[in-house]
Amino acid sequence: MIIKLPDTPDFSFDEEAGEIRLALPPVFSFSECLQHLTRSSTECMHRVEEGDILKLMSIDDQPFLLRISDSGDYLRIACLNRRIEDTTIWLELARGLREWLDLERDMTPFYSLMKDDPMLGKLTEQYAGLRIVGIPDLFEALCWAIMGQQINLAFAYTLKQRFVSAYGSCLTWNGHAHWLFPKPRDIAALSPHELTKLQLTARKAEYIVHVASLMDEGSLSKEGLLAATGNDFQAIQKLLLNIRGIGPWTAHYVLMRCFRDPSAFPIGDAGLHNALKRLLGRSEKPGLKEIADIFSRWRNWEAYAVFYLWRSLIP
Length: 315
Known about the structure:
The protein is an alpha+beta fold. The chain is built from 15 helices and 9 strands. It folds into 2 domains: 2-104, TATA-Binding Protein (2-Layer Sandwich), CATH 3.30.310.20; 138-169 and 181-311, Orthogonal Bundle (Endonuclease III, domain 1).
Protein backbone atom coordinates (compact mmCIF):
# COMPACT_ATOMS: atom_id res chain seq x y z
CA MET A 1 0.00 0.00 0.00
CA ILE A 2 1.28 3.49 -0.92
CA ILE A 3 0.64 5.91 1.95
CA LYS A 4 0.57 9.64 1.17
CA LEU A 5 0.78 12.26 3.89
CA PRO A 6 -1.45 15.32 3.34
CA ASP A 7 1.13 17.85 4.56
CA THR A 8 3.96 16.41 2.42
CA PRO A 9 2.55 15.89 -1.09
CA ASP A 10 5.95 15.04 -2.60
CA PHE A 11 6.49 12.18 -0.15
CA SER A 12 4.84 8.75 -0.09
CA PHE A 13 5.59 5.55 1.80
CA ASP A 14 5.42 2.13 0.17
CA GLU A 15 4.48 0.11 3.22
CA GLU A 16 4.92 -3.30 1.58
CA ALA A 17 8.33 -2.57 0.08
CA GLY A 18 9.45 -0.60 3.13
CA GLU A 19 10.69 2.31 1.01
CA ILE A 20 9.67 5.85 0.18
CA ARG A 21 9.07 7.79 -2.98
CA LEU A 22 10.10 11.39 -3.43
CA ALA A 23 8.35 13.29 -6.21
CA LEU A 24 10.76 15.18 -8.46
CA PRO A 25 10.49 18.81 -9.59
CA PRO A 26 9.63 19.51 -13.25
CA VAL A 27 13.24 19.92 -14.44
CA PHE A 28 15.54 17.43 -12.76
CA SER A 29 18.16 15.11 -14.26
CA PHE A 30 19.29 12.17 -12.15
CA SER A 31 21.93 11.33 -14.76
CA GLU A 32 23.43 14.82 -14.47
CA CYS A 33 23.57 14.42 -10.70
CA LEU A 34 25.47 11.18 -11.24
CA GLN A 35 27.94 12.98 -13.51
CA HIS A 36 28.80 15.30 -10.64
CA LEU A 37 28.81 12.57 -8.01
CA THR A 38 31.20 10.36 -9.99
CA ARG A 39 33.72 13.01 -10.99
CA SER A 40 36.33 11.54 -8.63
CA SER A 41 37.20 7.88 -8.06
CA THR A 42 38.33 8.76 -4.52
CA GLU A 43 34.98 10.22 -3.41
CA CYS A 44 34.19 8.66 -0.02
CA MET A 45 30.88 10.24 1.06
CA HIS A 46 28.70 8.26 -1.34
CA ARG A 47 28.94 5.41 -3.83
CA VAL A 48 27.33 4.99 -7.26
CA GLU A 49 26.43 1.40 -8.05
CA GLU A 50 24.54 0.16 -11.12
CA GLY A 51 23.07 3.61 -11.69
CA ASP A 52 21.90 4.04 -8.09
CA ILE A 53 23.36 6.21 -5.33
CA LEU A 54 24.30 4.63 -2.02
CA LYS A 55 24.65 7.17 0.77
CA LEU A 56 25.08 6.73 4.51
CA MET A 57 23.09 9.17 6.62
CA SER A 58 22.67 9.50 10.37
CA ILE A 59 19.80 10.45 12.68
CA ASP A 60 20.52 10.61 16.42
CA ASP A 61 23.80 8.74 15.80
CA GLN A 62 21.94 5.88 14.13
CA PRO A 63 23.26 5.00 10.63
CA PHE A 64 20.94 4.54 7.67
CA LEU A 65 22.44 3.28 4.42
CA LEU A 66 20.16 4.51 1.64
CA ARG A 67 19.87 3.31 -1.94
CA ILE A 68 18.50 6.10 -4.16
CA SER A 69 17.03 5.01 -7.49
CA ASP A 70 15.58 7.05 -10.34
CA SER A 71 12.06 6.07 -11.39
CA GLY A 72 11.27 8.93 -13.74
CA ASP A 73 8.83 11.19 -11.92
CA TYR A 74 10.10 10.22 -8.48
CA LEU A 75 13.05 8.81 -6.57
CA ARG A 76 12.75 5.49 -4.79
CA ILE A 77 14.60 5.44 -1.46
CA ALA A 78 15.28 2.15 0.32
CA CYS A 79 17.24 1.60 3.54
CA LEU A 80 19.63 -1.35 3.17
CA ASN A 81 20.86 -1.92 6.72
CA ARG A 82 17.53 -1.82 8.57
CA ARG A 83 13.79 -1.68 7.98
CA ILE A 84 12.24 1.69 8.81
CA GLU A 85 8.56 1.71 9.67
CA ASP A 86 8.52 5.03 11.52
CA THR A 87 7.45 7.68 9.00
CA THR A 88 9.02 10.45 11.11
CA ILE A 89 12.44 8.93 10.45
CA TRP A 90 11.66 8.64 6.75
CA LEU A 91 10.54 12.25 6.69
CA GLU A 92 13.81 13.39 8.26
CA LEU A 93 15.85 11.34 5.78
CA ALA A 94 13.72 12.69 2.91
CA ARG A 95 14.33 16.25 4.11
CA GLY A 96 18.08 15.65 4.04
CA LEU A 97 17.97 14.15 0.56
CA ARG A 98 15.85 16.99 -0.82
CA GLU A 99 18.40 19.46 0.51
CA TRP A 100 21.38 17.44 -0.75
CA LEU A 101 20.01 17.09 -4.29
CA ASP A 102 18.53 20.60 -4.47
CA LEU A 103 14.99 19.34 -5.10
CA GLU A 104 13.21 22.33 -3.58
CA ARG A 105 14.65 25.00 -5.88
CA ASP A 106 12.37 26.41 -8.57
CA MET A 107 14.73 26.51 -11.56
CA THR A 108 12.24 28.14 -13.94
CA PRO A 109 13.64 31.70 -13.53
CA PHE A 110 17.20 30.43 -14.09
CA TYR A 111 16.33 28.62 -17.32
CA SER A 112 14.30 31.60 -18.52
CA LEU A 113 17.32 33.84 -17.90
CA MET A 114 19.66 31.48 -19.74
CA LYS A 115 17.39 30.52 -22.65
CA ASP A 116 18.92 32.93 -25.18
CA ASP A 117 22.16 33.67 -23.36
CA PRO A 118 25.06 33.62 -25.86
CA MET A 119 27.47 32.06 -23.36
CA LEU A 120 25.50 29.72 -21.12
CA GLY A 121 22.43 29.05 -23.23
CA LYS A 122 23.92 25.95 -24.84
CA LEU A 123 25.36 24.67 -21.55
CA THR A 124 22.07 24.95 -19.69
CA GLU A 125 20.32 23.20 -22.56
CA GLN A 126 22.95 20.46 -22.75
CA TYR A 127 22.95 19.84 -18.99
CA ALA A 128 19.28 20.62 -18.35
CA GLY A 129 18.12 19.29 -15.00
CA LEU A 130 21.50 19.59 -13.32
CA ARG A 131 21.09 20.88 -9.77
CA ILE A 132 23.68 22.10 -7.30
CA VAL A 133 24.47 18.95 -5.34
CA GLY A 134 24.97 20.39 -1.88
CA ILE A 135 26.87 19.76 1.32
CA PRO A 136 24.12 20.32 3.91
CA ASP A 137 26.37 19.76 6.94
CA LEU A 138 28.22 22.98 7.80
CA PHE A 139 31.26 21.27 9.32
CA GLU A 140 31.71 19.08 6.24
CA ALA A 141 31.27 22.07 3.93
CA LEU A 142 33.83 24.16 5.81
CA CYS A 143 36.35 21.33 6.02
CA TRP A 144 36.00 20.51 2.32
CA ALA A 145 36.40 24.17 1.36
CA ILE A 146 39.45 24.64 3.59
CA MET A 147 41.07 21.46 2.26
CA GLY A 148 40.48 22.66 -1.30
CA GLN A 149 42.13 26.04 -0.86
CA GLN A 150 44.81 26.61 -3.53
CA ILE A 151 45.21 22.95 -4.57
CA ASN A 152 43.87 20.92 -7.46
CA LEU A 153 40.61 19.01 -7.14
CA ALA A 154 42.23 15.56 -7.31
CA PHE A 155 44.45 16.21 -4.30
CA ALA A 156 41.55 17.80 -2.41
CA TYR A 157 39.59 14.55 -2.82
CA THR A 158 42.62 12.59 -1.61
CA LEU A 159 42.86 14.75 1.51
CA LYS A 160 39.16 14.32 2.22
CA GLN A 161 39.40 10.56 1.81
CA ARG A 162 42.30 10.40 4.28
CA PHE A 163 40.52 12.67 6.75
CA VAL A 164 37.25 10.72 6.64
CA SER A 165 38.99 7.34 6.80
CA ALA A 166 41.03 8.45 9.81
CA TYR A 167 38.30 10.14 11.87
CA GLY A 168 34.88 9.32 10.39
CA SER A 169 32.62 6.39 11.22
CA CYS A 170 32.09 3.51 8.85
CA LEU A 171 29.40 0.97 7.98
CA THR A 172 30.53 -1.98 5.86
CA TRP A 173 27.86 -3.38 3.54
CA ASN A 174 28.42 -6.03 0.87
CA GLY A 175 32.15 -5.61 1.22
CA HIS A 176 32.14 -1.84 0.71
CA ALA A 177 32.85 0.82 3.32
CA HIS A 178 30.29 3.61 3.61
CA TRP A 179 31.33 6.66 5.61
CA LEU A 180 29.90 9.39 7.80
CA PHE A 181 31.88 12.61 8.02
CA PRO A 182 33.87 13.17 11.24
CA LYS A 183 32.10 15.06 14.00
CA PRO A 184 33.41 18.41 15.29
CA ARG A 185 33.92 17.02 18.81
CA ASP A 186 36.32 14.37 17.51
CA ILE A 187 38.42 16.85 15.52
CA ALA A 188 38.37 19.53 18.24
CA ALA A 189 40.17 17.07 20.53
CA LEU A 190 43.11 16.79 18.11
CA SER A 191 46.23 18.86 17.83
CA PRO A 192 46.78 20.37 14.36
CA HIS A 193 49.94 18.26 14.13
CA GLU A 194 47.80 15.10 13.92
CA LEU A 195 46.15 16.41 10.75
CA THR A 196 49.44 17.32 9.09
CA LYS A 197 50.18 13.57 8.98
CA LEU A 198 47.45 13.40 6.31
CA GLN A 199 49.47 15.94 4.25
CA LEU A 200 47.32 18.88 5.23
CA THR A 201 49.43 22.00 5.60
CA ALA A 202 50.01 23.20 9.14
CA ARG A 203 47.83 26.23 8.47
CA LYS A 204 44.91 24.22 7.06
CA ALA A 205 45.17 21.78 9.95
CA GLU A 206 45.00 24.69 12.39
CA TYR A 207 41.97 26.16 10.60
CA ILE A 208 40.07 22.86 10.65
CA VAL A 209 40.74 22.22 14.34
CA HIS A 210 39.71 25.81 15.10
CA VAL A 211 36.42 25.44 13.20
CA ALA A 212 35.79 22.11 14.93
CA SER A 213 36.36 23.76 18.32
CA LEU A 214 33.93 26.58 17.54
CA MET A 215 31.27 24.08 16.51
CA ASP A 216 31.94 21.74 19.42
CA GLU A 217 31.55 24.55 21.96
CA GLY A 218 28.35 25.72 20.26
CA SER A 219 29.48 29.16 19.14
CA LEU A 220 29.23 28.20 15.46
CA SER A 221 26.39 26.26 13.82
CA LYS A 222 24.33 26.38 10.65
CA GLU A 223 21.14 26.91 12.62
CA GLY A 224 22.78 29.62 14.71
CA LEU A 225 24.01 31.54 11.67
CA LEU A 226 20.59 31.39 10.03
CA ALA A 227 18.83 32.47 13.22
CA ALA A 228 21.28 35.30 13.97
CA THR A 229 20.99 36.78 10.48
CA GLY A 230 17.39 36.07 9.60
CA ASN A 231 18.60 34.02 6.62
CA ASP A 232 20.46 37.06 5.25
CA PHE A 233 23.21 35.58 3.08
CA GLN A 234 25.36 38.71 3.10
CA ALA A 235 25.23 38.80 6.91
CA ILE A 236 26.18 35.11 7.03
CA GLN A 237 29.11 35.86 4.73
CA LYS A 238 30.38 38.56 7.08
CA LEU A 239 30.20 36.19 10.06
CA LEU A 240 32.00 33.45 8.14
CA LEU A 241 34.76 35.87 7.14
CA ASN A 242 35.40 36.57 10.83
CA ILE A 243 36.52 32.95 11.29
CA ARG A 244 40.25 32.31 11.02
CA GLY A 245 41.03 30.59 7.73
CA ILE A 246 37.81 31.64 5.97
CA GLY A 247 38.41 34.03 3.07
CA PRO A 248 36.06 35.21 0.32
CA TRP A 249 36.39 32.07 -1.85
CA THR A 250 35.74 29.74 1.07
CA ALA A 251 32.82 31.81 2.35
CA HIS A 252 31.13 31.93 -1.06
CA TYR A 253 31.74 28.23 -1.63
CA VAL A 254 30.06 27.40 1.70
CA LEU A 255 27.19 29.79 0.95
CA MET A 256 26.72 28.04 -2.37
CA ARG A 257 26.96 24.39 -1.28
CA CYS A 258 25.65 24.52 2.30
CA PHE A 259 23.36 27.56 2.65
CA ARG A 260 21.99 27.39 -0.90
CA ASP A 261 22.59 31.05 -1.71
CA PRO A 262 21.84 31.32 -5.45
CA SER A 263 23.91 34.51 -5.67
CA ALA A 264 27.04 33.03 -4.09
CA PHE A 265 29.95 33.77 -6.40
CA PRO A 266 33.39 32.22 -5.72
CA ILE A 267 34.95 34.50 -8.33
CA GLY A 268 38.50 33.38 -7.54
CA ASP A 269 37.81 29.71 -8.26
CA ALA A 270 40.41 28.10 -10.54
CA GLY A 271 37.91 25.69 -12.06
CA LEU A 272 35.62 28.56 -12.96
CA HIS A 273 38.54 30.36 -14.63
CA ASN A 274 39.45 27.26 -16.65
CA ALA A 275 35.84 26.74 -17.74
CA LEU A 276 35.55 30.34 -18.92
CA LYS A 277 38.89 30.12 -20.70
CA ARG A 278 37.65 27.07 -22.61
CA LEU A 279 34.23 28.56 -23.31
CA LEU A 280 35.76 31.79 -24.61
CA GLY A 281 38.28 29.86 -26.73
CA ARG A 282 41.28 31.65 -25.29
CA SER A 283 44.82 30.68 -24.36
CA GLU A 284 44.73 32.84 -21.22
CA LYS A 285 42.24 32.92 -18.36
CA PRO A 286 40.05 36.05 -18.11
CA GLY A 287 40.82 38.52 -15.36
CA LEU A 288 38.62 39.07 -12.33
CA LYS A 289 37.14 42.30 -13.65
CA GLU A 290 36.12 40.66 -16.91
CA ILE A 291 34.64 37.70 -15.00
CA ALA A 292 32.63 40.09 -12.84
CA ASP A 293 31.39 41.88 -15.97
CA ILE A 294 30.39 38.58 -17.60
CA PHE A 295 28.49 37.46 -14.51
CA SER A 296 26.68 40.78 -14.10
CA ARG A 297 23.95 39.61 -16.49
CA TRP A 298 23.35 36.50 -14.36
CA ARG A 299 22.74 38.46 -11.17
CA ASN A 300 21.15 36.46 -8.34
CA TRP A 301 21.89 33.19 -10.18
CA GLU A 302 25.69 33.33 -10.05
CA ALA A 303 26.01 30.08 -8.06
CA TYR A 304 24.10 28.11 -10.69
CA ALA A 305 26.09 29.70 -13.51
CA VAL A 306 29.28 28.62 -11.74
CA PHE A 307 27.98 25.09 -11.24
CA TYR A 308 27.10 24.72 -14.92
CA LEU A 309 30.51 26.04 -15.90
CA TRP A 310 32.13 23.48 -13.59
CA ARG A 311 29.99 20.80 -15.25
CA SER A 312 31.44 21.75 -18.63
CA LEU A 313 34.85 20.58 -17.40
CA ILE A 314 33.63 17.00 -16.81
CA PRO A 315 34.23 14.81 -19.89
